[in-house]
Amino acid sequence: MSKELIEFSQEQKQIIKNQFFPQTATKEEMIYCMNIAKNMGLNPITKEIFFVPRKSNVNGRWIEKIEPM
């Protein structure tokens, strides 16, 4: 069972950006995470999806990325 695509108003997007993303999130990470939320029909405002920092080892170097959870 898949959910319907969800659309966010500009006001909602601004609230999500300001309150539900870590301050270190890049524009690209926010776009990626919001596309996942939209396509899966999950709303971060109602805590159906979270955006969290994760460390990954890329070519022997640890980097932090923001990922949907």
What this model shows, in words?
By secondary structure, the chain is of the alpha+beta class. 35% of the residues lie in helices and 23% in strands. It has two helices and two strands, in the order ααββ. The protein has helices spanning 10-19, 27-40, and strands spanning 51-58, 61-68. The protein has a two-stranded antiparallel sheet with strand order 1-2. A hairpin with a 2-residue loop joins β1 (51-58) and β2 (61-68). The longest helix has 14 residues, at 27-40. The two termini are 19 Å apart.
The helix-and-strand class reads alpha+beta
Order of helices and strands: HHEE
Radius of gyration: 13 Å
Query: How far apart lie the N and C ends?
Result: 19 Å
| Main beta-sheet strand count, sense and barrel state | 2 strands, antiparallel
Spatial strand order of the main sheet: 1-2
Helix content: 25-40%
Count every helix, treating DSSP H or I runs of 4 or more residues as helices.
2
Tell me, what's the shape?
elongated
Flag low-confidence runs.
Answer: none
Mean pLDDT figure: 93
> What proportion of the residues form beta strands (DSSP E)?
15-25%
Give the beta-strand count.
2
